[in-house]
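User: I'm writing a short methods note and want a consistent example. For Archemetzincin, I'll paste the sequence; you return only the structure tokens, no commentary, since I'll be parsing the reply automatically.
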Amino acid sequence: MIYLQPIGLVSHELLVKLSKELERKISKITGGVTILEPLDLPWQCYNPQRRQFNSTCILKLMEPRWITLGIISEDLYADGMNFVFGEAELYGSRAIVSIYRLKGPRLFERLVKESTHEIGHVLGLMHCKNRYCVMSFSNSLYEVDLKTSEFCETCKSKLSIRP
Ligand code: ZN
Ligand code: ZN
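Assistant:
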């Protein structure tokens, strides 16, 4: 099951749309999608100098149900990075995506890509060198828009060996 966990204010309409798309794309591997009640913004993870939330800190606060995907409207950073679109526990259970930097007319498709990417990490996939594969690492919106929302054949074959 994928548990969509809104953190702070997130458009319910967007979450419903995302849940339907993830259901269509990936529920054969993960099971269906459930939208959870929103969590309050975790201010203990906020860095006032940076005006960003620490994604690693938030991940640790989320209940580790397989697979929990946090969606947040605030900007995220991780140690050593100016910002991150999201973060996930590799082969773990939790992931988070921020919509803060995905905004624009392509917000929804970007959110689908980054959500699928982080779920891919939870399923054990590493970054992929294929720029069109959803598992390729994106450091800019240009790269997000360049890749597709699909796993390449190599990544797909790794997914299929999971129990
Ligand atoms: Zn990644
Ligand atoms: Zn790939």
